[in-house]
Design goal:
The structure holds three protein chains of three kinds. Chain A has helices at residues 57-62, 69-84, 90-118, 122-143, 163-182, 184-189, 191-197, 205-210, 216-219, 250-273, 323-334, 343-349, 354-358; strands at 4-9, 21-27, 30-37, 152-153, 156-157, 289-298, 301-310, 315-321. Chain A is of the alpha+beta class. In chain A, the strands form three sheets. A three-stranded antiparallel β-sheet of chain A has the order 1-2-3. In chain A, β2 and β3 (30-37) form a beta hairpin. The radius of gyration of chain A is 20 Å and the shape is globular. By secondary structure, chain B is of the alpha/beta class. Helices cover 21% and strands 23% of the residues of chain B. Chain B contains three helices and six strands. In chain B, β2 (26-34) and β3 (39-47) form a beta hairpin. Chain B is globular and about 40 Å long. By secondary structure, chain C is α+β, with helices and mostly antiparallel strands. Chain C has a domain at 39-111: Alpha-Beta Plaits (2-Layer Sandwich), CATH 3.30.70. Chain C is built from five helices and five strands, in the order αβαββαββαα. The longest helix of chain C has 10 residues, at 121-130. Chain C starts with a helix and ends with a helix. Classes of the chains: A alpha+beta, B alpha/beta, C alpha+beta. Chains in contact: A-B, A-C.
């Protein structure tokens, strides 16, 4: 005899640091329906474009998401630069890639730690966060801040790397890679981890496309789809290969993120070694006018910006589609049919970032 | 990049979207811009290049290749056909548009009635001011801030 | 089992954390920390106030007052970079926690040009030809 109960999941939940509320309709231990409720951290950042200068907006878009701030600014600056018809100098393009990839590494390490915490593997959580500290140190020593780097401006970047810093960064990157590689077996081969993540929250190839999944959620389901393949910034010059897994379950998604973190270390190293010489910014010709869209790859997936200018200092409209916004429909599809203890694992497997979803 | 959008109308929208769905496009998102007091411009962005492996060599020729955009101008007072029956993932963004711009979508499988970001008891959006600021400063004051919600 | 090596090393090694208030890490020289204004060199051009994304700086060029709200500041250091006289300085240490909010206010001598306008334009013209 099964009984239907409604269990509220979030916005405050021990394993979920994000203010996302999901109403779970459960029959005994099985989830039959999931309805999300958003809006706990809606800040109305999109409408700020009307009150702030387009150069000042760079610092606002960085604050949409704390974890991948540099990539938000990168996307916004690229969209505005396209409208103005300018291109950032090559050195700025490479520096943007370096800081974006550093953000990807530390975001993935943070996620891997949280994911381990979600299925109760606390020591791995601490190990990952200890490794992450190397990357945070690199960010702080080069950009001046740990998380919100404020590096991008429309038309280039604001800080340069000197040879001494590059040498020090390469040493730190080696440490990071060593730390990640040490945890490979634990994270990917451990019996407990496999039991908790394999075959859970399966998203098939066709479902992933129809539900509009992006990023590691999409790549975990076998699609070779990464915005970095479009070669924005300096990715066209770097040796980049998307990481793809076929299974579409939580384990596949964590594998994608794990290997992406390692691949990002390699990308940063390559970009540092091939950093071209040029100035850092270009002069901007007037104010943005017209419409433009731009997509970049965030740690969580594809980030989409639509901006519309009217020739004035202020933009007329900006729309941000963050990857988690696109990953919520797949999540709602994955939840029904799973067991209640698996819910945190599945919710975390899309790497939710609710603050940037609601903007 | 500057993009070219295919113009559609509410009547032809569903047919066009179905055609794209059959061609295995991925729905990226929708953007909304207020054109004037009664007209809202909706862009539907689609992505096709799920299977192309490497576009980096061609990126100078085709920046942001593989995207298709539909442009639709709608009357704010008329219900807009929802594409959620074809792309389930359009549900969230259509609900968000309902919240922020006070329009109605027809045939949403999960309809928050303009209260996705807000509590049910809050009748008007406190800071969904993309349109309401304009109205408050414009001539259509009688409706009040957020008045176009219903 | 895969963690065994790690666990043993962690047991025998030093902790990865610091006893923070007692033991402080050497700050990175490029860190964006506290901002202060060497008001003697300031020309009160208000470019910092105009550029600031949060509007944390207010400049009264007539009275020669420079006001800064450290709790609105996001430490993006745009003002420091764009300061024409480099009188805005940024330290590499962060601002420590505070119990209450306060405003940093600095008063200096207003720009000479302002004195000129007060004294009349003729005098300024004479000074220019004289210089």
């Amino acid at each position: 005899m099964s009984r239907t109960t409604v269990i509220p999941f979030g916005p405050q939940h021990p394993v979920l640091p994000e203010p996302l509320h999901i109403r779970l309709v459960v029959e005994d231990e099985n989830v039959v329906q999931a309805v999300p409720q958003l809006g706990f951290v809606h800040r109305g950042l999109e409408s700020l474009v009307r009150t702030k200068d387009f150069n000042q907006m760079v610092f606002v878009v960085e604050r949409i998401c704390g974890i991948c701030s540099c990539i938000h600014a990168n996307c916004y600056c690229n969209a505005i630069e396209d409208m103005l018809g300018v291109t950032a100098p090559p050195r700025a393009q490479f520096l943007r890639v370096i800081w974006s990839e550093l953000h990807r590494i530390h975001s993935h390490l943070l996620w891997l730690g949280l994911f381990a915490d979600a299925f109760g593997f606390e020591s791995v959580f601490h190990q990952f966060w200890r490794v992450r500290e190397h990357v945070m140190d690199i960010c702080e020593a080069t950009a001046g801040n740990r998380v919100i780097l404020s590096i991008n401006v429309v038309g280039g970047v604001r800080r340069d790397l000197v040879p001494d810093q590059i040498r020090w960064m390469l040493v730190q990157l080696d440490e990071t890679e060593k730390g990640i590689r040490e945890l490979t077996k634990t994270m990917l081969n451990d019996y407990t981890v496999q039991e908790r993540t394999r075959g859970i929250g399966v998203l098939t190839r066709d479902e992933a496309r129809l539900l509009g999944a992006v990023g590691p959620t999409l790549r975990g389901s076998g699609w070779e789809c990464d915005e970095r393949m479009h070669g924005y910034a300096a990715y066209k010059d770097l040796n980049f290969v998307p990481v793809v897994e076929q299974d579409g379950d939580c384990y596949a998604r964590s594998r994608v993120r794990f290997y992406e973190a390692l691949h990002s270390v390699a990308l940063v190293r390559e970009a540092l070694n091939r950093l071209p010489e040029s100035e850092l910014t270009v002069k901007l010709p007037g104010n943005p006018d017209g419409e433009s869209v731009f997509r970049v790859e965030q740690p969580r997936g594809e980030l989409f910006y639509y901006v519309r200018g009217n020739g004035g200092k202020m933009l007329e409209r900006m729309r941000v589609r963050t990857p988690t916004f696109a990953n919520i429909p797949p999540l709602l599809h994955m939840l029904p049919g799973c067991k209640l203890p698996d819910v945190p694992v599945i919710v975390l497997s899309i790497d939710p970032c609710v603050s940037c979803t609601e903007r | 990049m500057f993009f070219e959008a295919v113009p559609v109308t509410p009547e032809t929208l569903l047919g066009e979207v179905r055609r794209l769905a059959e061609a295995k496009y991925r729905f990226v998102t929708m953007s909304q811009t207020v054109l004037d007091e009664h007209t809202l411009c909706l862009y539907y962005h689609f992505d096709e290049n799920l299977t192309l492996t490497d576009l980096r060599r061609a990126c100078d020729l085709f920046p942001q290749a593989g995207m298709t955009h539909l442009r639709m101008e709608v009357d704010k007072d008329r219900p807009i056909p929802s594409i959620s029956s074809i792309y389930f993932c359009a549900l969230l963004i259509e609900n968000e548009t309902q919240d922020q711009f006070g329009v109605r979508f027809e045939g949403l499988p999960l309809d928050y009635q303009g209260a996705m970001y807000l509590e049910g008891e809050v009748a008007r959006g406190p800071y969904f001011t993309m349109t309401t600021v304009r109205r408050a400063s414009g001539e259509a004051l009688p409706k009040g801030p957020g008045g176009e919600q219903q | 089992m895969y963690m065994l090596k790690n666990v043993l090393r962690n047991l025998s090694g030093r902790p990865a954390t610091r006893l923070y208030p007692l033991e402080d890490r050497e700050p990175f020289p490029a860190y964006r920390g506290r901002i202060h204004n060497v008001v003697e060199e300031c020309i009160f051009c208000s470019s910092c106030a105009r550029l600031c994304p949060t509007g944390a700086i207010a400049v009264d060029s007539r009275a020669g007052r420079w006001e800064y709200d450290p709790f609105l500041c996001v430490y993006c250091s745009v003002c420091v970079e764009k300061c024409p006289t480099k009188c805005l300085k940024q330290e590499c240490t962060h601002r420590t926690a505070s119990v209450g909010k306060f405003l940093v206010s600095r008063t200096g001598t207003p720009r000479v040009k302002k004195a000129k306008t007060e004294a009349g334009e003729r005098k300024a013209a004479a000074a220019e030809t004289g210089g």
